[in-house]
Amino acid sequence: MWSISTRPLRQAHCAPFPIDLPLRCIAAGSPDGGRVLDPFSGAGTTGLAARHLGRFYQGIDLRPDYHDIALRRFNNQQPDELNEPGTAA
């Protein structure tokens, strides 16, 4: 069992999750330099985790507003974005 702290996403996304979740899953399930496909990418948390771990990332989402949130997060990543409480990075 994992204990993962949560923190709300400042942008308007209905179901954000802590970056610890994709960090742990990607680290456990893909090799260095591997590829991560997220067919429901939403605000891009999985993409940030993939990039942090040195993986290639492809995100897909039907909602243009979520796509915009993800792009803003990728382009304007805050220094603490990957250092949330409980982060396993």
Question: Can you describe what's shown?
Answer:
The protein is an alpha+beta fold and 89 residues long. The protein has one domain (20-82). Helix content is 34%, strand content 9%. The chain contains three helices and two strands. Strands 1-2 form a two-stranded parallel ribbon. Helix 2 links the parallel strand 1 and strand 2. The radius of gyration is 12 Å and the shape is globular. The two termini are 17 Å apart. Residues 84-89 have low confidence and may be disordered.
**Low-confidence region ranges:** 84-89
Question: Tell me about the biggest sheet?
Answer: 2 strands, parallel
Along the chain, the helix and strand elements come as: HEHEH
What is the total number of structural domains? 1
**Rg for CA atoms:** 12 Å
Strand order of the largest sheet: 1-2
Sheet-strand content, in percent, reads 5-15%
Shape: globular
Helix content, binned percent: 25-40%
The average pLDDT score comes to: 81
**First-residue to last-residue Cα separation:** 17 Å
Which secondary structure elements does this structure contain, and how are they paired or packed?
Blueprint: H1 20-29, E1 35-38, H2 45-52, E2 56-59, H3 64-75
Parallel strand pairs: 1-2
Helix pairs in contact: 1-2
In short:
With 89 residues, this protein is an alpha+beta fold. The chain has three helices and two strands.
For the structure shown, list the relevant keywords.
two-stranded parallel sheet, 34% helix, alpha+beta, 9% strand, 89 residues, globular, disordered C terminus
